[in-house]
Amino acid sequence: MVLLVLVGVVWTGWRCRMFPGGWHFAFTSAYADDRNDLAQARRRAREAEREGRQRVSRAQSVVNDARARKRERVRTLERRIAGLREPGPGPLKKTLGDLALHHHVLRIKERSVPLAGLQARFEGSADHHYAYVTPADGHETMHDYPHALYKEREVRGFVLHVTNGARREAKFIDGRDAEIRKLEEELQQVTDDDTEEEAARQRLAEVTQEHERDERIKQLRLELEQARDRWKALTGHRPPR
């Protein structure tokens, strides 16, 4: 009930503000046609204004979308270039004891050794299997795996994965510089190319100008001002737009 009363008070205040001059002008049937004349003039002017603003807003959205697409293309290329320059360890592929093979590095305990230039070999004895790892710097390490805990096939398989990973990484390194140069050229082209955004901006300027010069909107604004003048002449109070 309190809410209904509050709504009624707000609506009454709004109506008195929109149709100023006194209670009888705002509410009685004697001035219904005058109120309708003013209300219709407002509605027509507002609808025309809203339609014009929507056209401008849509044109602005096209500009924003073009800018966002370019920004995303730039970010994508920058991420790809950064990923080639600093690929990081990459996903984990396989583990064996204290060795962990990633896509770009071999982790030996807490140390990361680049796969590029790395060599690995297998040897065996009566009670142990051995994996020898030699990075590009030549510092060889030996890793032993007791027969009781590791099968020969398991150790040999890991050494083979490391060897193949090193070969794959060598190919990646060989092609990386050329790929980076290619992506940098593409990035520069994308950065310099404002064709899509400029076309959208041009269209926005045209739509904005059309809105500002729209004769229909000007006419409806004039008709609204005339309706406001008639209301003022009737009541002595000029109503809001």
Structure description:
α3 (32-85) crosses α4, α3 runs antiparallel to α5 (195-213) and α3 (32-85) crosses α6. The protein has two domains: 2-83 and 195-235; 88-192, Roll (PH-domain like), CATH 2.30.29. 65% of the residues lie in helices and 15% in strands. The chain is an alpha+beta fold and 241 residues long. The strands form two sheets. The protein has a four-stranded antiparallel beta sheet with strand order 1-2-3-4, with helices on one face. 14% of the residues are buried.
Helices and strands in order:
Layout: H1 2-18, H2 23-27, H3 32-85, E1 92-96, E2 99-102, E3 105-108, E4 111-114, E5 119-124, E6 128-134, E7 141-146, H4 152-192, H5 195-213, H6 215-235
Antiparallel strand pairs: 1-2, 2-3, 3-4, 5-6, 6-7
